[in-house]
Write a structure and sequence with these properties.
The chain is mainly alpha-helical. Helix content is about 60%, strand content about 5%. The longest helix is centred in the middle third of the chain and has 28 residues. It is elongated and about 60 Å long. It comes from Streptomyces cinereoruber.
């Protein structure tokens, strides 16, 4: 079961207490455990993988593990957030590199359709945890909160990117973010079963431009923000 804290603001996973004497090594320890966990989950499965296997692969003790994570569920959710942040950052950097002339729906769809070579491992892990969450209402509740934050980031970024392309959504942004995620995850499920018939990202490349065209409209004259220095942002002002 996923441990959560209730009763004071939005429910969140309980954070393990920070031990005294924590040094600058802790971020490296956490990163090594996350990397080892992803590899172990992908190889053995979320349920079959043990904390001992993760620690052995990372080269750390169980004590180091429990000073960072209270459970395998908490470890997965940390992987989820790390993967979301990395994916969003890569896409934002690609979009920020576009010139004003390149801000077209087709080009934006092409960038959003890219699938990194290491995505298969993550897909295996997140699919298994999703099945776990479907069977466990508490795990589902916590996973839904993380999904919600990811959708909010996608919706915010999509709104900004479309404005730079001179367009705006005509449908609810959160619903459209759900569609984007469904297209990505559903397409990958088929691609990893039939990679020759359906290369990863090909469904998005084929249909996302049409979805964007059908679900957006041109901004009133003067509403576009693309071009010049406005297309270059960083930090919290990144496009996604």
């Amino acid at each position: 079961m996923v441990g959560v804290r209730r009763g004071s603001g939005p429910d969140e996973l309980e954070e393990p207490p920070v031990p005294k004497g924590v040094t600058r090594r802790r971020p490296r320890t956490r990163a090594a455990l996350l990397k080892a966990a992803l590899e172990t989950f992908a190889e053995h499965g979320f349920h079959a993988a043990t904390i001992e296997q993760i620690c052995e692969r990372a080269g750390y003790t169980r004590g180091a593990y429990y000073s960072n994570f209270a459970s395998k569920e908490e470890l997965f959710l940390a992987l989820f957030d790390e993967h979301s942040e990395r994916t969003v950052r890569r896409l934002a950097e690609s979009i920020d590199a576009l010139t004003a002339e390149e801000y077209t729906l087709a080009r934006l769809a092409e960038l959003a359709s890219r699938v990194e070579p290491d995505e298969r491992d993550w897909y295996l892990v997140t699919t298994e945890f999703t099945l776990h969450a479907i069977r466990d209402p508490q795990a589902a509740w916590v996973l839904a909160r993380h999904d919600e934050r990811l959708r909010a980031e996608i919706a915010r970024g999509l709104t900004l990117v479309l404005r730079r392309a001179g367009r705006e959504l005509t449908v609810d942004a959160d619903r459209f973010a759900r569609l984007l995620i469904a297209l990505r995850e559903g397409g990958l499920a088929q691609s990893y079963v039939e990679p020759d018939a359906l290369p990863p990202g090909s469904l998005e490349r084929q249909f996302l431009p049409g979805f964007l065209e059908a679900s957006t409209r041109e901004l009133p004259e003067g509403g576009a923000r693309a071009g010049g220095d406005q297309s270059k942002r960083s930090g919290s002002d990144a496009v996604i």
